[in-house]
Automatic annotation (TrEMBL):
GO terms for molecular function: glycerate kinase activity. GO terms for biological process: organic acid phosphorylation. This is Glycerate kinase. Pfam families: Gly_kinase. It comes from Schaalia canis. The lineage of its organism: Bacteria, Bacillati, Actinomycetota, Actinomycetes, Actinomycetales. It comes from the Bacteria.
Length: 348
């Protein structure tokens, strides 16, 4: 019997929106969580074939890309990131080595990471660009740096794997809404307008130098996912890169559809099973593939507000909950083996 065990155990976003656990035991890493769950299953059914796949944000995204091979440089924007210059520098270094970077990003806490990221890609410092902006204006600085990055990166312009569809600007954008869905009050309308115009004009100016790309195109700040990573999505698009759905990207590069062939059950680790979080998670991409193969799916988490109807809506057949520890996950693995796997084995 074969089972596909995938997902992640990144609790940073969840604990920022929901009460954090008071346990003194540190939260297990993605690798530790998946291994503990698999260990519990094998203790109950030693003959079980368990295929483990990290699949999610943060370290899970990087690990999934590395396991799939290829020449890309996998990176991610942490939820609590305050300065993305180092990230931009790594994109620049990768391009100089002939490697394209893929950056995983969602709806993060900061709104101005785009500026430090742009500085890093251009090999500059944020303070240097700020001083120039004070002297000649933000629009001129952003336009010149975006043009430089387009030329320097060329075909190695990065891919932004977005877990959020929020644009850079607009009523439902990352400038208007906090990750907890409350209204932002720390960004003035004048500041948002200045940032938006600077990025859109930089993109328009850069594209005007490329005749084949002329024509009516949407503003980069209105593109779905352009608000990912504190506006890094908009900068990636303006510099000639792509914005991709993160879940769809990982399904493609990991060959998930092929790896679930012949499996009897899929177990997904997703710490917080709440509608608003699942809407910007990797779970829908996984359950969509499993549905196409008529594969039952069980989610393991530590907190859930899903009703039975909502569980079915998200493509799940069952949910199991436990506390945030490796021992609890091992126990949940045993419970899956005693219940779902025995039920599946009787139907084979």
């Amino acid at each position: 019997m074969k089972i596909v065990l995938c997902g992640h155990w990144d609790t940073v976003v969840g604990t920022s929106l929901f009460p954090a656990s008071t346990a003194e035991i540190p939260s297990p890493s993605c690798e530790e969580a998946l291994s503990a769950c698999a260990r519990g299953m094998r203790q109950t059914l030693p003959e079980l074939e368990v295929e483990i796949m990290p699949f999610g944000p943060g370290d899970a995204f990087v690990a999934a890309c590395q396991q799939s091979g290829g020449a890309v440089v996998p990176l991610n924007v942490p939820f609590d990131c305050q300065d993305a210059r180092a990230l931009g520098s790594r994109v620049r270094e990768g391009a100089q080595e002939g490697r394209r970077s893929v950056i995983e990003a969602g709806h993060v806490a900061s709104v101005d990471l785009w500026f430090s990221f742009l500085a890093g890609m251009a090999g500059r410092t944020s303070s240097e660009l700020e001083e120039r902006a004070e002297a000649v204006g933000l629009r001129e600085v952003v336009a010149s740096v975006v043009a430089q990055c387009r030329e320097d990166l060329g075909e190695q312009a990065p891919i932004l794997a977005a877990t959020t569809l929020r644009p850079f600007n607009g009523m439902a954008s990352m400038l208007a809404v906090n990750p907890d869905l409350s209204a932002r009050t720390d960004v003035s309308m004048s500041m948002a307008s200045e940032w938006t115009r600077a990025i859109d004009e930089a993109d328009t100016t850069a594209r005007s130098a490329l005749p084949l790309l002329n024509g009516t195109q949407p503003r980069v700040t209105s593109l779905p996912g352009s608000g990912a990573g504190g506006g890094i999505g908009a900068i990636v698009a303006a510099c000639g890169g792509q914005i991709r759905d993160a879940g769809g990207y990982l399904v493609e590069v990991t060959g998930f559809a092929q790896r679930v062939e012949g499996a009897h059950l899929c177990v997904i680790l997703e710490p917080y099973l709440h509608g608003p979080l699942l809407a910007e998670s990797y779970l829908p991409a996984l359950t969509e593939v499993c549905a196409g193969s008529a594969l039952p799916v069980v989610a393991i988490g530590m907190d859930s507000s899903l009703s039975r109807h909502e569980i079915a809506q998200w493509g799940l057949h069952g949910v199991m909950l436990g506390v945030d520890s490796a021992d609890a996950l091992e126990n949940l693995g045993r419970r899956v083996a005693h219940t779902w796997l025995r039920r599946v084995s009787r139907s084979i």
